[in-house]
Amino acid sequence: GAMRLGEVVHAMEARIESAIGTGEAPGALADDLHGRFDHAAALFEALQRAPAAAADTGLADVAGVAAPALNAGTGAPAGAPAGATTAIAPKEDKAPAAHLRVRADILDRLVDHAGEISITRTKLETELGQLRGGLGDLADNILRLRTQLREIEVQADAQIQAQANETRHAENFDPLEFDRYSRLQELTRQLAESVEDVALVQSGMSRALQLADNDISAQSRLTRDLQQNLLHMRMVPFANVADRLFRVARQSARELGKRVRLDLQGENTEVDRSVLEHMAGPFEHLVRNAIVHGLELPAARTAAGKPDTGELRVSVHQESNEVVVVFADDGRGLDWERIRARGESSGRIPAGRIPDERELIELIFAPGFSTADEVTELAGRGVGMDAVRAQVAGLGGRIAVSSEAGRGTRFTLYLPMSLSVMQVVLARIGDQRFAIPAAMVEQDQHVAAEELLPAIQRGAIAFEGIGEVVLRPLAQLVGRDPTPPDTDTHALALLRLGDDRLAISADEFSAPREVVVKNVGPQVARLAGVLGATVLGDGQVVLICNPVQLIARAPEPPEVVADFDLDSMAPESGLERVPEDGAGDESPAPLRAARTHTAHILIVYDSLTVRRVTQRLLERNGYHTILAKDGIDALRTIETQRPDCILADIEMPRMDGYDLTRAIRANAATHDIPVIMITSRTAEKHRRMAFELGADEYLGKPYQEEELLRLIRMHVGAKARA
Predict the structure, then answer these.
(1) DSSP state of 298
(2) Mean pLDDT, residues 558-582 taken together
(3) What element of type H or E holds 313?
(4) How far apart are CA 680 and CA 7, in angstroms?
(5) Parallel, antiparallel, or unpaired: how do β-strands 645-648 and 675-679 relate?
(6) Helix or strand (DSSP H, E) at 339
(7) How far apart are alpha carbons 364 and 552 in whole angstroms?
(8) 673-698: buried (b, 16+ CB within 10 Å) or exposed (e) per residue?
(9) Which of 68, 83, 175, 432 could make an S-S bridge to 77, C-beta 3.0–4.6 Å?
């Protein structure tokens, strides 16, 4: 129906052209143009009201209005005087929905408030559950009290009967007159009445709790609907970035002399506005990359039997709670030999080694890597694909690559539907929980201890139909004691990371649940592997983590280094690369945690507060910490994980610091581990005994943090040099 509107506007242009140089009175021309403009505005409003399904059926059907006949050659309504405004009445009485423009920051605040309401509701549900459990216990106690009171009454009646038998000789007295009912019987009757009163209160509270449950359930549905509607308001169609992609495709093709047809499919798929804003740049780079490196010149395509116009398809669809964006071209595919040659020349691939396709695909995401012969505005700078995957990983998504020689390359991006709400799996380690995006968890299962513990030592575990997969304890990845709990079975989860997989172990994995993602602030957001945080119903703050970005915290078992390349995962994980000499050189350097040894410090204190304070101090300064609550616990830990230095107190239960030092020095495998005593016992006899047993340093509390760090650096450095 837009053609009719176009005809009206073109007629206005023709009317202006015909009036130029004719000497027509300006007033008459202005009146005529005003009339035509009013008619065009009415047609435009009718098009806005039109149902989308009838977009090609003509003005009367499209707009739902009576389309007036137009005067030939003028475009004005037939029978309407010049300058007259024509009102077009819609056929339907139903008025179009009103639209209101809302600032994005206000909408974001509303979504945050809805999230807070959801968190508060979850807390209320938890508290109601506790109250429900308390009322259940109260009902059990009332039942037990009734049984006990009944036994007391029976025993009291038996005593009364015995007393009555002894006083049968008092025939002149009635039993009531004989006052055989003592104070005990009166108290049992009163106690029974009190129990019934308590039971009545408990019954009333149970009814009120049931009503509260019904109300909280109704409020839960309303909150969920509110949150979903607010999130839907944040959703925008993928077509919002279509113009940018078409513009990039046109400019790139024109500069390279290539012919490209960009086909956008599923552009009406809705994506969270924040996700689309974050990914607009990476989308443009993928389009540019496909045209520069993927599609051939027209002559080369014709010689290969292809159409001279290359095709780049961008398809968008929703899978579960993810948005899948596919960039596929029909070009030459990835040039494996060229990638391998560039990898060898840059030192990323050892000379003579023949890498597989998976390693070569990972290589294109390496920082500074490019196969272009010369640096141009479009290619050769080595900046782009690493930033694309880092951006995808930062949103909690992943990227997969596939290529077929002569047929083309496909980049598949898996992005979250929303950055405000996320499906997660809760992993428990002791009394602490961590959230993992549910989209990453391919499966979880329970494994017997005799199978898992050797696999942890080896660093890999086999899955049916998949083969060997790298295994790391989640506790090790988050900097906690990796010693598994003493149980018969352990929880194991298999994470899918594009074409790669990683297995992690924990005490327990929960079923997937929906949580509200909270901003963690700039200080925590800079930490690798932290995607955000959420608040559970019990008020516990839980970090949402990406275990892949934490893999470099774990030591590398030599048997599995080739199966899971830390270098290849670095671009996606966002791990910080630092110069080897620490001087700020911008050239690619090894991963800090993957290629250099980070000292492990064993902290042995019976005080939980002291353990945590010392742990935070050392981790802020780049050390890995292991915690033990006494000497026995420390010796068990040393058997499975050898520390580089030990900080120990003297007074501890089961085994004190003196006995711990004596045991460490008596063992040939641990006698060279530095031991630093930190204690409130500062007397000379305590100090002398510690040095006699083999302690390296002795600090009194409170100690200076810089002094402790200096001693650790000195002893760990001396041990490393030795």
Answers:
(1) H
(2) 35
(3) strand 309-319
(4) 93
(5) parallel
(6) helix 336-345
(7) 20
(8) bbbbbbbebeeeebbebbeebebbbb
(9) 68
CA angle 213/215/219 to nearest 5° reads 115
Q: What region does 590 belong to: left with phi over 0, alpha with psi -120 to 50, or beta? A: beta
The two three-digit tokens of residue 342, written as one number: 């560039």
Contact status, residue 432 vs residue 442, Cβ threshold 8 Å: no
Q: What is the rounded CA–CA span in Å between residue 143 and residue 240?
A: 66
Among 191-195, 343-347, 503-507, which is the least confidently predicted range? 343-347
Residue 456 near residue 471 (C-beta atoms within 8 A)? yes
Structure tokens belonging to residue 264:
């956008």
CB proximity list for 135: less than 8 A, separation 6 or greater: 202, 205, 206, 209
Instruction: For residues 371 and 339, give the distance between their C-alpha atoms in angstroms, rounded to a whole number.
Output: 6
Residue 236 in 3-state DSSP? strand
Supply 115's token pair: 């999230």
The total of other beta-carbon atoms located within 10 Å of residue 322's CB is 20
Helix (H, G, I), strand (E, B) or coil at 183: helix
d(CA 422, CA 516): 7
Which runs of E-coded beta strand occur in 387-529?
Answer: 398-404, 408-416, 421-429, 432-437, 441-448, 460-463, 467-473, 489-497, 500-506, 508-509, 513-516
One-character DSSP codes across 205-223: HHHHHHHHHHHHHHHHHHH
Crossing angle of helices 566-573 and 385-394, rounded to 10° = 70
Q: How many helices (H) and strands (E) does the chain have?
A: 21, 23
Rounded-to-integer distance, Cα 391 and Cα 387, Å: 6
| Band of pLDDT at residue 551, cut at 50, 70 and 90 | confident
Contact 269, 316 (CB under 8 A): yes
What local confidence, expressed as pLDDT, does residue 64 receive?
33
In what side-by-side order are the strands of the sheet with 489-497? Answer: 441-448, 489-497, 500-506, 467-473, 460-463
Q: Helix 608-620 crosses helix 705-721 at what angle (to 10 degrees)?
A: 70
Distance between CA atoms of 35 and 303, rounded to whole angstroms?
Answer: 59
3-state secondary structure 541-557: EEEEECHHHHHHHCCCC
Confidence bin at 243 (pLDDT 50/70/90): confident
Q: What is the pLDDT of residue 515?
A: 82
| Kind of pairing between the strands at 675-679 and 697-700 | parallel
Work out the burial of residue 298: count CB atoms within 10 Å of its CB; fewer than 13 is exposed, 13-18 middle, 19 or more buried: middle
For 169, counting Cβ atoms within 10 Å of its Cβ (0-12 exposed, 13-18 middle, 19+ buried), the class is exposed
Cβ atoms of 375 and 381 closer than 8 Å: yes
The Cα–Cα gap between 341 and 360 comes to 10
Tell me how far apart the alpha carbons of residues 624 and 274 are, in angstroms, rounded to a whole number. 35
Distance CA 261, CA 253 (A): 10
Round to whole Å and give the CA distance between 297 and 256.
8
CA nearest 447: which of 477, 395, 489? 489
Q: pLDDT, tens digit, for every residue of 650-701?
A: 888 788 889 999 999 998 888 889 999 988 887 888 888 889 998 999 988 8
Give the number of other CB atoms < 10 A from CB of residue 359.
19
Within 10 angstroms of residue 389's Cβ, the number of other Cβ atoms is 27
